[in-house]
Each structure stands twice: as C-alpha cells, then as structure tokens.
TrEMBL record:
Protein name, per record: Uncharacterized protein
Species this protein is from: Cellulophaga baltica
Length: 251
C-alpha cells in the first residue's frame, strides 16, 4: 500500500470536486479519507460526542479532540504538531494514582483484532528524556490490554491477569512512557521500566470502545495517537500523509 499515491489521488480529486461529493467515494477509500491529510472531518459540533471511526484497521486521532480537565493545557507553539496543537499536563503529578485529569475517546471499530497503540509525545519540562515523559492509559472495555516485547507479555496491575510490568501500573492502567535524550515530539509508547514493551489492545468484536487517559507526569505533551493492526506498519500508520480518522457524533 503506497499511501502517498493514494493521498495524491484524493488531493487531485479534491481539486475538481466539492466536499459534498466526496462521500460518494467512500467505498473506494482504504485508509486515506477524501478530505486529505491533516483534516479531522466531522459535522459533530460537540467534542463530548465525538466518535472516532476505524478504517482499514487504522485509527489516527488528534489527542486534543477530547474533553479535558483545566490543568491539561492546549498549546499550539510547536510546528511538529498537527490539528489544533497538543495537550500538556500542568497540574500536580500523579505518579502513583491514575484517574486524575481523566479524558476519554470513543473508538468505533469495524475490524476486530489486536491493535498496536502509539502516541506522539514530547517532554516540555526540564532537560531529561526520562522525566516528565509519561501519561496513564487504559482500555477497560476491550477484550485484552497488554504490552509485549518478544515472547514477554505483561498485563496491567489489578486487571486480573499476570505477569505485571515493573514500574507504575494500577487499576488496569499502564504508565505509557517515551524515552531517549531527544525531548521533541516523536512516535513512541512503551511500558515496563528499563525494558520497553510495546502496547496492544484487542477488540474481539466490532463495536464502540472507550480509551481513557489520565495525568501522571507534569510537562508530558501529547499531539496524536494511532491504533493499527498488524496489516499496517508503524511507519505507514504514522506517516504525515495519513488523514485523521473520520469523526461521527454519538446519538
Ligand atoms: Ca494534535
């Protein structure tokens, strides 16, 4: 699958058709939406009712497209981000207790299966890549939520499943961190201290699922996230040519 070629086709189509016509092309769309890269297409005017629609085994969502506690600050001062910018936690740290500064995302999944989760985040406080670098994540209504590195699979604490990772985990939440000395926005999501495991969630049936995030480290900034099946590579899922998932409205 060459995303760039598909994106070019739709960009070219966009030059000759008004947006009202674009829905006619939906059956031909695999991953790229007709609105073109960088757009979150929606007629939904209430962010609390946003539903993000998986397409072709991919969800690509602007992190700021949710309802946030006032200590999550929306900023648009970094050219490396998209949409309206990014959210950064400027409240108290919550290193041991998930659930503070909670935000949720409704994800409409049509292709059941296991999806890898990765977000694009940055460190906006201090000069260490190992501090102010994480936020809590939970999928409480999915069939499975786990982290994997090779043969090693771990589950969140209090999920009823073992083993659990080293480092912070509680009440079904993983601490999701980025690492490395570069503090700028990059696509990376891991859990398990000093033994980075990738993050996965399994949706065993089509339906609408809830993704939850909550504050952990102050100064951790998040721009976007992706969920993608093993039919898609990380490079393709996070390519700049991929459009954001179509947003519909909850009834
Ligand atoms: Ca963003």
């Amino acid at each position: 699958m060459k995303f760039k070629n598909i994106a070019f086709v739709f960009l070219a189509m966009g030059l000759f058709s008004c947006t009202n016509d674009s829905s006619d092309n939906e059956e031909d769309i695999d991953i790229i939406s007709p609105e073109g890269p960088g757009e979150s297409a929606t007629n939904c005017t209430d962010v609390a009712k946003y539903v993000f629609n998986e397409n072709g085994g991919l969800l690509r969502v602007e992190f700021e497209d949710a309802v946030f506690d006032s200590d999550w600050k929306l900023k648009n001062d970094d050219a490396a981000t998209s949409g309206e910018g990014y959210m950064v936690w400027e409240g108290d740290q919550s290193l041991g207790t998930p659930g503070m500064g909670l935000a949720t995302y409704a994800l409409q999944v049509t292709v059941p299966g296991t999806y890898r989760f990765v977000w694009k985040s940055a460190v906006k406080t201090g000069d260490s890549g190992s501090d102010h670098n994480d936020t809590w994540l939970r999928f409480n209504d999915a069939s499975d939520f786990f982290a994997q590195k090779g043969e090693s699979i771990v589950y969140p604490a209090d999920s009823g499943k073992t083993p659990n990772p080293e480092g912070a985990t509680k009440d079904g939440w993983f601490k999701i961190y980025r690492s490395g000395s570069n503090l700028d926005f990059k696509w990376q999501s891991s859990t398990f201290d000093n033994n980075a495991h990738d993050i996965f969630v399994t949706f065993s049936a089509a339906g609408t699922y809830t993704m939850e995030i909550s504050a952990r480290s102050s100064g951790h900034a998040i721009d976007e996230f992706v969920l993608f099946t093993d039919a898609i590579s990380l490079a393709d899922a996070t390519s700049d040519t991929v459009s954001k998932s179509t947003i519909t409205c909850k009834n």
